[in-house]
Design the sequence.
């Protein structure tokens, strides 16, 4: 082996290691519908209490989670190789299993579902869009509720005498 060939080996090894590390961090996809588990192939370990389908792929660039467990707030973005209609049906049927109450539902080209947590202190707004070829993208935003027991319209309450 010549000296020039020998000096390239560390560069090739470093590029291969970085490529493998990048592949590992890109797919954090879930394997269960319950977001409470952690480990390889599971959902982000800090969230629970929402409906997540099997086989989703987390969009780490668009996801931001504050807090943990079933008290988290933020945006969870993911894509899945399932039609938007099937995702709509899945989320609509599964959110109640996690203690969420349906507030509003719009099934359209871009579907939107809105839920209120069981103790009415958080709101979940879920947008489902069709992917270009097949599958769908889901953006779930969970935020604190501004009302107690209902979603506030932003107007002051009317007092009757």
Sequence:
């Amino acid at each position: 082996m010549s000296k020039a060939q020998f000096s390239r080996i560390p560069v090739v090894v470093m590029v291969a290691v970085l490529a493998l590390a990048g592949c590992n961090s890109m797919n954090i996809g879930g394997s269960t519908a319950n977001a409470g588990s952690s480990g390889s192939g599971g959902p982000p370990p800090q969230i629970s209490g929402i409906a997540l389908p099997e086989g989703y792929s987390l969009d780490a660039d668009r996801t931001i989670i504050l807090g943990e467990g079933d008290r988290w707030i933020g945006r969870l973005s993911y894509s899945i190789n399932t039609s938007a209609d099937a995702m709509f049906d899945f989320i609509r049927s599964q959110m109640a299993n996690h203690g969420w109450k349906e507030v509003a539902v719009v099934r359209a080209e871009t579907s939107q579902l809105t839920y209120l947590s069981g103790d009415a202190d958080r709101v979940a707004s879920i947008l489902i869009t069709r992917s270009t070829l097949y599958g769908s993208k889901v953006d779930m935003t969970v935020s604190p509720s501004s009302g107690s027991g209902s979603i506030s319209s932003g107007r002051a309450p009317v007092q009757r005498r």
About this structure: The chain has one domain: 3-144. Strands lie at 57-58, 64-66, 73-80, 100-106, 110-117, 122-130, 136-144. The two ends are 95 Å apart (CA to CA).
